[in-house]
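Researcher: Next entry: Ion-translocating oxidoreductase complex subunit A (Neobittarella massiliensis).
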Amino acid sequence: MKEIFTILVSAILVDNFVLSKFLGCCPFLGVSKKMDSALGMSGAVIFVMGLASAATWPIQTYLLTPLKLDYMGTIVFILIIAALVQLVETIMKKYLPALHRALGIYLPLITTNCAVLGVTLLNIESQYTFIQAVVNGIGAGIGFMVALVLFAGVRRKLESCDIPKSFQGLPITLVAASLVSLSFMGFAGLAENMFK
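Model: Predicted structure:
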């Protein structure tokens, strides 16, 4: 249980895919303008990361590795992620049309979100068990949500600030993102030292 909790905390705070590994920056910068779309995208990413971790681990373990087809892993994982994103998009379109419209192009971009592919590959590289892989996937999704919600708050605060003309738009967004990323460096060593 201690190891599962360590993986979860590490995925959320210490090894945050957006703020520590810099994966998934496109939706991070694109969807963080409004809190409701940030939460909607986060929910979709958590769902896709968790399911992708659950689907890719057995395929790698029981199919690709025994057949010595490890080199096909990335292609197979991308196909699985694409199928899961299509499922999420179909569900959102039917049951949450306002959120589907708000997310726009960023929802299909989950397929090419390198954070989702990164978590599935990291699960295999770290030699996690099935449960550990799923926990890491869900934790990485929650970490994505934490980063997105924090940054949406920062961007909302920036709207009321007097920003010099040369920094308006993308420059101040990137500066703010780098400062949020630096703040997450303070969590280094947290997961390993929690139970000492």
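Model: Note for the record: Residues 24 and 113 are 5 Å apart (CA to CA).
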